[in-house]
Amino acid sequence: AQKITQTQPGMFVQEKEAVTLDCTYDTSDQSYGLFWYKQPSSGEMIFLIYQGSYDEQNATEGRYSLNFQKARKSANLVISASQLGDSAMYFCAMRVPPDSWGKFQFGAGTQVVVTP
Amino acid sequence: NAGVTQTPKFRVLKTGQSMTLLCAQDMNHEYMYWYRQDPGMGLRLIHYSVGEGTTAKGEVPDGYNVSRLKKQNFLLGLESAAPSQTSVYFCASSSLAGGSYEQYFGPGTRLTVT
Lengths: 116, 114
Fold this sequence. Notes:
The complex is a heterodimer of chains A (about 120) and B (about 110).
Chain A: E1 3-5, E2 10-14, E3 19-21, E4 24-26, E5 33-39, E6 46-52, E7 60-61, E8 64-69, E9 74-79, E10 88-95, E11 104-106, E12 110-115
Parallel strand pairs in A: 2-12
Antiparallel strand pairs in A: 1-4, 3-9, 5-6, 5-10, 7-8, 8-9, 10-11, 10-12
Chain B: E1 4-7, E2 10-13, E3 19-25, E4 31-37, E5 43-51, E6 54-57, E7 65-67, E8 73-78, E9 87-94, E10 104-105, E11 109-113
Parallel strand pairs in B: 2-11
Antiparallel strand pairs in B: 1-3, 3-8, 4-5, 4-9, 5-6, 7-8, 9-10, 9-11
């Protein structure tokens, strides 16, 4: 069975600093996808970044980058130059094809609070 | 382009009442999903559908039923609501195209069962 673990329930970060959110996963499949979503206090789920298991380079999307360490089975999200609007819950998720029909396994989430 | 919409946004039910949550997507996605979100537990998959007329159980299906009569709609039903079903419900959809199977989420429905 696949499993996603986010060990940091919450963290504070100062504005303009970088923050790393931890995510480890467990799967025996060779082909899988890793995702990060942001959920602000308004409640919607916002897609941030995707990393495929065969991608050799770490994914980047603006201020977001995914530090993918395949051997360690970790997919940490790095947010550079934090902004007040980054305060939110962040979820790591994994998809394992082909039998999963696109189903995701979500971690419990990390609450980030950005302070001035 | 509305993406994924959910109706209603809020609902309060009494124990034993029934209701249906409606999810609609206008992206022609093949796959659709219903999740529930409870504090400290992330999102858990209730049911999902891989195409019109097909549904399957997820991680926490008990007490829920679903139907997908049209490709763009995915309905979640509670036949006899229980307080344990108090939660925020999210619908999502994804496509075979693109390779990532990124899921697009609706805004959520906050359900309280008293």
